[in-house]
Each structure stands twice: as structure tokens, then as C-alpha cells.
Amino acid sequence: MAIQDDVNFYFQHRAEFVKNFKNQFVLIHNQQLVNVFGNYAQALDAAAQQFPPNSYLIKQVLDPEPTETIR
Q1: How far apart are CA 71 and CA 7, in angstroms?
Q2: pLDDT (tens digit, 0 to 9) for every residue of the chain, 71 residues total?
Q3: Which backbone phi and psi does 49 adopt, to 5 degrees?
Q4: For labelling alongside 50, which of 2, 20, 40, 69 has CA 20 to 30 A away?
């Protein structure tokens, strides 16, 4: 599975994540929520122990979702 599939999964479930996990970090692998962490370092440590590199998504649940502008 591609990381894009996990990104799509995040946005499909974003409303639920905001309601339950706002400001926390979700770990998603193969379109499944694996766990939720209080900080990025904890999420990265858990992911590195369980999955190969570049096979998971760690995303902070923010509301509103930040956007970037390229100038």
C-alpha cells in the first residue's frame, strides 16, 4: 500500500479524529489507525519498532487543518 492510501484514510476519518484525538498524533498503517500518541517522538518510536521505513503515516490532528501557500 502507498502512503497516499493512508493520507486518504486520514482525511476520510478526519472528523472522528478531531472529535476524539485533537492535537494528538495518529499513527496510521495500511489504512488502519494503529495508535494515538501525545507527541511525535512517541509515535515515531512506536512506528519504527513495528513497521518498515516509509510504510506508515504519522499525522497531528489539528483543527483547523493548516494550509501552506507557495509564493
Answers
A1: 25
A2: 689 999 999 999 999 999 999 999 999 999 999 999 999 999 999 999 999 999 999 999 999 998 876 66
A3: -80, -25
A4: 20
* CB crowding 2-20: b at 16 or more within 10 Å, else e: eeeebeebbeebbeebeee
Q: Which amino acid is at 16?
A: E
pTM of the model: 0.91
Instruction: Count CA atoms within 13 Å of residue 55 on its CB side.
Output: 11
Listed in sequence order, the residues at least 6 apart from 47 whose beta carbon sits closer than 8 Å to its beta carbon are 27, 29, 34, 56, 58
Q: How many other CB atoms sit within 10 Å of the CB of residue 63? A: 12
Residues 61, 67: Cα–Cα separation, whole Å? 13
CB-CB contact of 20 with 63 (8 Å): no
